[in-house]
Fold:
Amino acid sequence: MMNEEWTEERLIASIHGVVSGLRFARPQLRAWYDNWLRARRLPGAPQNFAHAMVVTGQGSGLDPADDGAALCLALAALGGPQPVADCFAGAVAAGLFEAATTETREQHRRRLARAMAAALGRDHENTELQRGETSDELQAFVPENGFWTDPGHLQPAIILGRRRLCRIDTVNAQGKKVNGTGFLVGPSTVLTNFHVVKDVWEVFDQPELISVRFDFSATTGLRDADQPRYSAAKTGWKVAHSGKAKWIKEDDYWWDDLDKRLAWLGQVEDTLDYAIIRLDGAPGLQRGWFALDKVEEAEPDGVWIMHHPGSEGQTLTGGRAVHTFPMKSRIFHLATTAKGSSGGLVLNQGGTPIGLHYLGAEAGADPSEPFHQNPTMNVAVTLKAVSEDLKKKNALTQLTSTTDLNLIAGCIGRGQPVFGRQEYFRVLRDLWDGSKRVLRIHVNPFDTPITRPGKSFSFSILQHFFAAPENHYILFRAGDIQVDAYRLACDTLATFAPNPAEILPKALDTTTPAYVRRLVSKFMQQVSARLSDKTVWIVLDDLDKHDLSDASGREFLGTLYDQIGQQQNLRLVLVGLREDVQINGLDPALVAHSAINAKSLENPSVIFREWLNERGARDTALDEDGLKFLADIAGAYAGTEAPLERLSQFVTDYVAGAADSLFGSLGTEAPEDT
Structure:
């Protein structure tokens, strides 16, 4: 609902000046906006991008056919400056807007974020100084130059950080609960401080004593997102570590003395106090991760720390960086930290990840002496040092491997059930790591024909495991595919590049195969130039109902098949193509198969019972007769026409709420004090 101060007219006028000149691919933005709305579930917000065009800006004079006007209307439909700022910052962080050729990506994103903040009257952050007792466990508060604020109110780079930040709960050698912070550095790997998990690592060697929670904050807007709690993998959970560094205790203010500081930096250069833990699951496929093989060394002017101090949710604190020369493997900073901040993500003043926070110290001597300007000092390990250490240990390449793709209690997304399909999950892992590039999903012939066996639901599962913005999807229904190569190439390119007609060659000035090769070459160039940091999924659905496009359109697809092995970040999913249909030009070694078999559909009551056990029934003392009774009801409801679809509807309508009450909700849990 629009507040009195911010009328719709004022909001539109403020937004339009920022977005009117932006260049972006409208289909890509529309898909991102719809996903953002589903995640946030704002009261009074439009249902989707198209709905926003209808409900917003009547009489404003803006034409929704214009990209800039449509973006303005979509943002204004959110109802107020804060959701507008959050949504726009997320789109900027996702890289949806083209930068000018004279700008770096970081400069471009910072400029857009500042422009929107200024337009919405949000130039200044809400800050509050927090004090507390100094911890005796390698943490300290700093004086008045520190400030704390919510990371959602800062710059676009923070949005990516808060998706990847996690709270780590574990125990020490005495069995006492302790907590720290970490962040994703791979699809299944988290980086934290070694001293956070040291006792579990060295004394207990029990991964079940480690629990990792994402979205541990009241302001993420992701209460209905995937279950945020993961455990360490049962085997192979110890990826790499470096020991706890020594600290000079006997001399107050030694960090302000250059000679003593240099001596300490030399002593701790090979003890970086980090641990990388492999999780049971792959949250990084939905959230993304910070690639340690791409970090750069930089001297910061100031730092932002994203962390979980004490029992707090996601917190952002900022402060000056001091003693930056020589920096070596450490960053000295004055951002406020506390017990629980260990393992926090350190960003420089521009939002670039540069460090792993790990300790703070407070001197006990009289701070009034003029030389001792920093009575409190906090320290982080540089990510560059961690990266170099991992290279020495031949462990850097292990970060991007993943454990099996697992459902959360038999569900995806907001508790949407998935029945069977375990073999499909294994196939998806092969596609993710690149050992396979093409996926064929088909339905084996049934003795009794079953309508809608669930093959198209495969796309929903795919999007769950490999989410935006790290993944970009191009979905076509076979009946809608254009018959000629040029129109098909235009439609494909338009999902991520503005004005595709200006990019692609139009004139058929040579033979059809030669012309199509030019089209495919241009398409591949654009994928490399615009989506090099994403995995691109081209999904062709309903291939069992419609033939692939003929004429030059079929030639385009055939040429694409031939080239797909050369484009590392491109994947092709063919849904419904019969197993006996041959694809010319496609290397069989790059093809993975996933079949839906009659056996997986023939007994819905058994399928439901297996799902109910996975959802939590096996861990409760429920009556067996009662469970069988419920399973028989579900099976009867499913019937034989679209059984899995109807079974999913039954669970969503009649079982999900009761399962949440009985087994625990799949949404974000409330914070616990430690």
Observations:
- Confidence is low (pLDDT under 50) at residues 124-150, 222-227, 667-674.
